[in-house]
Amino acid sequence: MSMDFGVYESKLCSAGEAAASIKPGDHVFVGTACATPQTLLREMESFKVPRADVTIYSFLTDGAMPFAQGKPASKYRHKCFRFSSLKRRQKAEPGWLRLHLEGSVQGL
Q: DSSP state, 61?
């Protein structure tokens, strides 16, 4: 069975065009680990006037949040999901969203 991805061709755009389409108040979910759209995030951070009230959500990412001198230096609010079990309750940490799983997850 082959898939026709041609229907998505009209949606292709540059990272700059994608970043420019983000509106104030938007919630942006970015890919995980090596799928983190680094170019998109750099474009967003390069705006002289960042979009107001934008939140970037991610799982385990590499470089989603820029750092300067060891501290977060993003113009945007970042929220990162973390997995934990119901048995193991941890104190909430700023910037982390906990996902409680009923059972153990294989392969994590």
A: B
